[in-house]
């Protein structure tokens, strides 16, 4: 289910998904130069002050996190200095940040991306934190928080599935029905286009949104195990299996919004809100960019359709977000207290009350207040046989950022040049994964 630590086969991990998902941030730092992250000055950050680096830069999560931090400060009588940095800038500069003068605690992602920095000695072992909070988390989430050395470096906060989202009112008006397989999906796209809609909202200016489309196509065509093996650098990108992913995608591209490389995901979400597009493959956070009048009450989703009956719809993309402590933290004890609090049911309930676009990871969290979308998300994820974390989390960060972002953007611009593109990816993959 959840991506296990390196060296553990996904197929060898047996997990009770319904237990796992039942319940279903950069301190005082600043940008001192364009694209460069550094921790803020103003003292060693010890004592009762914890510095905290956050990538919760959009309005909704930023406000929700502030409420959680306020709760911690009142409860623990400590001060948290939060430095909020643009989400993409945060990710692009995280390596230099952690090697420089990082904050005590910071927001990050589960699975491979956590393991990558833990292996480099850039994160603090928080196995003792898990000694306190572990009872509220199932084994799969602990595995997703564990490094290759079997120590824990991450505290999960929430997860959010990727699916095909749409406006219920528009679909009721037009009589559309969710597609269960590729043929139905193409037929739906054709119907939407004949009705004057752009079938699929699409954006990739930020570099990562198109990865979700690739992931689902690969898992639906070639299966979860092949996908994860490809992400680990163990498969050939020039193989017929990978080529089929891109040729299938090429056939679907005419139904997507044109000019995706110049559009942010928020702008694509606006087209869904305005009923100019019929559907949108994205994470559940899509609701953050929709006005309250057309928010969760008018948003629904269906799983990405089946392509290869052998794999059906058995895999779901559901990234886990959470927190880590930097290896250079000046207030390790304070940072651990903060992560213990963030891992609590109370903290996650507080956050989701303001940002109902995710699902809590703490299995003791109260789900009675979940809206229909959250409840459906829990059912989707708990019903899946496999959970992927997302391309830029399931593979090496350098491969994702320096190879796959430009490669997918190039494909969007020149979808007919697949052979040359895959040859380039394979060559770069060999260079990166052998270093």
Provide a descriptive summary of the structure in words.
By secondary structure, the chain is of the alpha/beta class. The chain folds into 2 domains: 10-160 and 320-369, 3-Layer(aba) Sandwich (D-Maltodextrin-Binding Protein, domain 2); 162-317, Periplasmic binding protein-like II (D-Maltodextrin-Binding Protein, domain 2, 3-Layer(aba) Sandwich). The protein is 43% helix and 15% strand. It has helices spanning 17-20, 59-76, 87-99, 112-119, 127-133, 139-143, 168-174, 182-194, 209-222, 224-231, 240-252, 265-273, 332-342, 345-354, 372-382, 391-394, 397-413, 418-433, and strands spanning 30-33, 36-38, 49-54, 79-84, 105-109, 155-159, 162-167, 198-201, 277-283, 299-302, 315-317, 320-325, 359-360, 386-388. A 6-stranded mixed beta sheet has the order 4-3-5-12-6-13, with helices on both faces. Strand 3 (49-54), helix 2 and strand 4 form a beta-alpha-beta unit. Helix 9 crosses helix 10 (224-231) and helix 17 packs antiparallel against helix 18 (418-433). Mean pLDDT is 87; it is low at 1-36 and 38-45.
């Amino acid at each position: 289910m959840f991506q296990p630590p390196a060296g553990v086969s996904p197929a060898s991990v047996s997990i009770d998904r319904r237990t796992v998902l039942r319940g279903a941030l950069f301190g005082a730092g600043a940008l001192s130069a364009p694209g460069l992250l550094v921790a803020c000055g103003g003292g060693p950050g010890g004592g009762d002050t914890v510095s905290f680096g956050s990538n919760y830069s959009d309005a909704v999560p930023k406000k929700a996190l502030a409420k959680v931090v306020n709760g911690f400060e009142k409860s623990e009588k400590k001060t948290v200095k939060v430095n909020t940095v643009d989400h993409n800038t945060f990710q692009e500069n995280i390596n230099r940040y952690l090697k420089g003068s990082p904050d005590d605690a910071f927001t990050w992602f589960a699975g491979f991306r956590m393991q990558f920095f833990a292996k480099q000695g850039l994160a603090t072992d928080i196995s003792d934190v898990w000694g306190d909070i572990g009872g509220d988390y199932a084994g799969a989430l602990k595995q997703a928080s564990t490094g290759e050395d079997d120590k824990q470096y991450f505290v999960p906060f929430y997860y959010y599935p990727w699916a095909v989202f749409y406006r219920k009112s528009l679909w009721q008006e037009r009589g559309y029905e969710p597609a269960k397989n590729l043929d139905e999906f193409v037929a739906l796209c054709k119907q939407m286009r004949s009705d004057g809609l752009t079938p699929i909202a699409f954006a990739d200016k930020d570099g990562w949104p198109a990865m979700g489309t690739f992931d689902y196509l690969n898992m639906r065509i070639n299966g979860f195990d092949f996908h994860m093996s490809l992400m680990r650098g163990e498969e050939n990108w020039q193989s017929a299996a990978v080529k089929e992913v891109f040729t299938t995608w090429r056939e679907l591209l005419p139904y997507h919004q044109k000019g995706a490389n110049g559009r942010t995901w928020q702008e694509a979400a606006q087209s869904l809100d305005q009923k100019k597009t019929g559907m949108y493959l994205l994470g559940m956070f899509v609701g953050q960019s929709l006005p309250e009048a057309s928010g969760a009450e008018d948003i629904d989703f269906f799983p990405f359709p089946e392509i290869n009956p052998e794999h059906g719809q058995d895999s779901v993309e559901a990234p886990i977000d959470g927190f880590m402590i930097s290896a250079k933290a000046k207030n390790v004890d304070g940072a651990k207290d903060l992560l213990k609090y963030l891992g609590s049911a109370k903290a996650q309930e507080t956050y989701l009350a303001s940002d109902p676009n995710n699902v809590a990871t703490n299995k003791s969290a109260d789900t009675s207040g979940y809206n229909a979308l959250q409840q459906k998300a829990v059912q989707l994820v708990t019903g899946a046989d496999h959970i992927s974390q997302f391309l830029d989390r399931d593979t090496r960060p350098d491969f994702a950022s320096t190879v796959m972002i430009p490669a997918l953007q190039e494909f969007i611009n020149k979808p007919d040049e697949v052979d040359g593109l895959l040859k380039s990816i394979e060559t770069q993959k060999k260079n990166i994964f052998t270093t």
